[in-house]
Amino acid sequence: MDEVFGLFPTPFLRAPGTLSASLVQGLVRHFTVMPRDLNKASDQLSHTALLGPDDSPLLVEAATVITPKIVDMGALMFGERLEWSIKEMWVNVLEPGGQQAMHNHANSFISGVVYLTDTHEASQTVFLRSAGGSDFVFKNEHANVTSTPFNGDRWISPKPAPGDVVLFPSYLLHAVPPNQGERRITMAFNAIPSGLDSWGYSVKFG
Ligand SMILES: [Fe+2]
After folding, report:
1. Ligand 1 mean position to 105 CA, how many Å?
2. Is residue 4 part of a domain?
3. 93 located within any domain
4. Can you list the positions of beta strands (E) in 30-172?
5. How far is the CA of 79 from the centre of ligand 1 (A)?
6. Ligand 1 center to residue 174 CA distance, Å?
7. What distance in angstroms lies between residue 188's CA and the mean position of ligand 1's atoms?
8. Cα–ligand 1 centroid distance for 100 (angstroms)
9. How far is the CA of 1 from the centre of ligand 1 (A)?
10. Residue 97: left (phi > 0), alpha (psi -120 to 50), or beta?
11. What NCBIfam families does the record tag this protein with (predicted)?
12. Has residue 17 been placed in a domain?
């Protein structure tokens, strides 16, 4: 029997229904009336400033249910249940027609998204394979090509429901295609472990 192994896969953790409906409603009510800055690339996308625990007890409540998921994800990435903290959170409001350009998150190890409204299927978060270096590229792309986990360069995350959380390594490129549905609201965050240790060569974060 032939076997195929997916070597060195990238973890992507989806945690449905992590935030209760009442917490989701509270976050939407509280944060959509806050001042927001327009995104550099899209006038139909705006972000709150970075939020901290002092901005609302709702954020503390959200962090309490999200952090255990981050610990699970960190155990996959680093092989140990480390002490993790969410170091920043912010709310994104994507109006119809708006989009989020491809990006990743600097100075962070695990990033995540909490979905606070319904998401139109056209604007489910898309994850992209790294574009690579400056070498010449060979590709086989045409109508008769079948997508596999080994040749694909983009992956559309599963349709989320309000209260769902997804976690991914912060280096992973992602984007949101043009929103063909109603106003789409998400909360994003970055998390770091207190430290990493490689046989005594240790670093502390925070
Ligand atoms: Fe992002």
Report:
1. 6
2. no
3. yes
4. 37-38, 45-47, 84-94, 100-103, 110-115, 126-128, 154-156, 165-169
5. 25
6. 6
7. 7
8. 8
9. 41
10. left
11. TIGR02466 family protein (TIGR02466)
12. yes
In the predicted model, what is the mean pLDDT of the chain? 95
SS3 25: helix
Rounded to the nearest angstrom, the distance between the alpha carbon of 50 and the centre of ligand 1 is: 13
**C-alpha 63 to ligand 1 mean position (Å):** 18
Distance 77 CA to ligand 1 centre (A): 19
What CATH number does the domain containing 158 carry? 2.60.120.620
- Number of domains observed in the structure of the chain: 1
The single residue listed with the structure tokens 């350009």 is 101
Range of the domain at 97: 13-194
Q: Is residue 206 part of a domain?
A: no
- Ligand 1 centroid–CA 169 distance in Å is 11
pLDDT lower than 50: segments of the chain? none
Percent of the chain with pLDDT over 90: 84
Report residue 42 CA to chain centroid gap: 19
What the block records as the tokens of 100 is: 């989020």
pLDDT digits (tens, 9 = 90+) for 33-90: 888 899 988 889 999 989 888 889 999 999 999 999 999 999 999 999 999 999 999 9
Closest CA to 179 of 109, 106, 126, 127: 126
